[in-house]
Amino acid sequence: MNATPPAPFTLPRPVGAVLARLPAYPGSMLLVAAINFALARQLPQDVKDILQGKRLAIRVRDARLGFDFSWNGQRFAPSAPQANPDLAISANAQDFLLLAQRRQDPDTLFFNRRLVMEGDTELGLVVKNALDALELPVLAPSHWSPRAVLERKAPHLLRQLPPLPAFLKPRP
């Protein structure tokens, strides 16, 4: 969280109105697939035990999207939208992106009322502390670029690709 975060941005209402028409369940499926791939294996067992059977929700206010899921003991699983999850975390799309990139501190967003936790606040603190304890590259977008994933998972395939043009190479 070294860089100064950008000024707050809210998606325009017409964009939120269009996104609100999307069915909720496929979005929850995509979110849990990403969470399971990127984070689930790194969660400590005591956190997994606390999450067991808990109903969780991520609400993206400006996009008017909700993602509902739970931990089933092995992985996160999508669920139908729930009126009263055990923990609901709400923020605008930009704030979630800044959190994922570690460019904004969750406490700052919380105290500025840009990040809201509703429901079991003790569970919310467990989730927050578990995410804070994860290694930084897990949430960095550059960690999930196709080349970065190939480099970690299939370096032999990466060697078969042509080199990146100079204008696409990451800056030092």
UniProtKB/TrEMBL annotation:
Tell me the superkingdom of the source: Bacteria
InterPro entries cross-referenced by the UniProt entry: SCP2_sterol-bd_dom (IPR003033), SCP2_sterol-bd_dom_sf (IPR036527), UbiT (IPR016830)
Example GO biological process term? Answer: ubiquinone biosynthetic process
Pathway of this protein?
A: Cofactor biosynthesis; ubiquinone biosynthesis
Keywords in alphabetical order, please.
Ubiquinone biosynthesis
SCP2 domain boundaries: 51-132
Its family remark reads: Belongs to the UbiT family.
Q: What does this protein do?
A: Required for O(2)-independent ubiquinone (coenzyme Q) biosynthesis. Likely functions as an accessory factor.
Designated name of the protein = Ubiquinone biosynthesis accessory factor UbiT
Report the source organism.
Alicycliphilus denitrificans (strain DSM 14773 / CIP 107495 / K601)
Gene (name only)? ubiT
